[in-house]
Amino acid sequence: MIRKKLLVMVMGFLGYAASVKAQDIQSNTEGFNIGVHAGVGNWSSSYFLNLDELEPIGVGGGLRLGYGLNQRFEVFAQYNAKTFAIKNDWDTYRISSLGAGIRVHFGGTLQRLRPYVEGGVAGVNLLINPVLFNGDLVEYRLKGPSLALGTGVNYFLSPNLALHANATGTFGKFNSFQVNSRGIQDRPDVRTLQFSLGINFFFN
User: Would I find Signal among this entry's keywords (predicted)?
Assistant: First the structure.
């Protein structure tokens, strides 16, 4: 009888321990976090004919700072930069953006895989040199605001450390267009699309 009671107690303890382990926190998006990423992207505009097709893919990376208000909502700021000076002989061909927004996480702390969607605004800067303009080689310098929309997923290696994959697009119009540092009145449209992989650390 005593042995049976001991066996029941041991089995009960093991079952409780397994239950507690199953309920361990696997992810936590609250509080401050920082991330770095690398990826590829492109840009397009109906204004520039085939200029955006000369170097269709750019490579680069970025830095991201976020603060999780709770497990669902996070505010963030992000900087991205990419170079397109890959195939042809450019002095400079790069695009960068600085933006802020809100990210909505799905799932809960018991899940390692946490998908999300995000939206915000970004300032996009494009610098190309040299460009053939009216028979002369010149520098293009453009900047303007855009709407940014994205989606992705975090995979938590631990509650504080996550790998992530992201796809983001921006849609807007340049409100400043300089040719050799002289402004012109044209306001070209611009769209960007980027795919990135990176790592985030959560200070929670």
Answer: yes
The residues that bridge with 142 in the sheet, in sequence order, are: 126, 177
Tokens of 203: 């200070």
56 - beta bridge partners?
A: none
The burial class, CB within 10 Å (0-12 / 13-18 / 19+), for 22 is: exposed
pLDDT digits over 43-97, tens only?
999 998 788 889 999 999 999 999 999 999 999 999 999 999 988 889 999 999 9
DSSP 51: G
What is the pLDDT, as a whole number, of residue 8? 47
By the 10 Å C-beta count (0-12 exposed, 13-18 middle, 19+ buried), 2 is classed as exposed
Show the domains of the chain with their CATH numbers: 2-203 (2.40.160.20)
Neighbours of 60 (CB within 10 A): 19
Cβ neighbors of 12 (< 8 A, separation 6 or more) are none
Distance of CA 196 to the CA centre of its chain: 7
Q: What CA–CA distances, in Å, run from 183 to 6, 45, 176?
A: 86, 19, 7
pLDDT of 21: 46
Quote the CA–CA distance of 55 and 48 in Å, as a whole number. Answer: 13
